[in-house]
Amino acid sequence: MLFKRDGINLHFEDDALHEIAWLALANKTGARGLRTIWEDVLMDICLIFQLWKILRNVL
Length: 59
Prior knowledge:
Blueprint: H1 2-5, H2 14-26, H3 30-58
């Protein structure tokens, strides 16, 4: 919902989902680790989108 509100439609390829799950398994972090990985990924996307909006308004 957060991204959709800003007109962003996120789609993750199966390989990306498997890689994220593998990272959690490799680090032996379980569900909480998986959540942390997702938070990091989504935070990066949020920051990139915010920078894009700023740059679009400047240029």
